[in-house]
Amino acid sequence: MNFARIPLLLAVVLMIALAAMACSGSGGDDDGENRWEADPMGDYPYPVEMLTNEAPSAEGRHYGQGEFQGYNTTTYNTNPPTSGRHIGELVQRGFYDERIPDEVAVHHMEHGYSVVWFNCMAEPALDATQCGELRDELSNLVQQEAGSFHVIGFPDPEIPHRIALTAWQFMDTMETF
Questions:
Q1: What mean pLDDT do residues 78-86 have?
Q2: pTM here?
Q3: CB of 115 within 8 A of CB of 149?
């Protein structure tokens, strides 16, 4: 086993657990606070934010592609998003070489998926070789976990961090693999 991958693997598994908790209605409350009062996972050494649910009542329904004004340009409270308006479209779990629209990624999170986002252009920008290595490492990890868990991964040049892991209302970010 590649031991350098253990922290990211733990983070992905944590995000899957948090997604399951959020979808089942447990694990924190939604009173407008955007962080856990207490550490949700005990001694987990990495910061994980619990964010406000952006999809209350009617906003949480599945929109059709034609219903969004400016489809793919919806504004979310976080980047990448962790909840909010979304369309009723799913893709197969696994890793993608092209960006998946936020509205599709949010729908996956609503269904208990974890999403791995990455940006090679986040400062400091990676060169082509470094970006390929990061892409390959993340792809291998996502493909390995997608066999057992609901996880998708893809590049997103718009996120401010190198790597972001999201689940419904949860986000963990990191600058290195």
A1: 88
A2: 0.71
A3: no
CA atoms of 55 and 69, how far apart (whole Å): 17
Q: pLDDT grade, residue 36 (50/70/90)?
A: very low
**Residue 169 pLDDT exceeds 60:** yes
Structure tokens, 17: 């657990």
What 141-148 contacts at long range (C-beta under 8 Å, 24+ apart), as own/partner pairs, is 141/5, 141/8, 141/9, 141/12, 141/116, 142/12, 142/94, 142/95, 142/116, 143/94, 143/95, 145/9, 145/12, 145/13, 145/16, 146/93, 146/94, 146/95
Q: 159: burial class by Cβ within 10 Å (0-12, 13-18, 19+)?
A: buried
Round to whole Å and give the CA distance between 168 and 21: 9
Please give the distance of CA 162 from its chain centroid, rounded to a whole number.
Answer: 13
The count of other CB atoms within 10 Å of the CB of residue 10 is 14
pLDDT single digits (tens) 115-129: 999 999 999 999 999
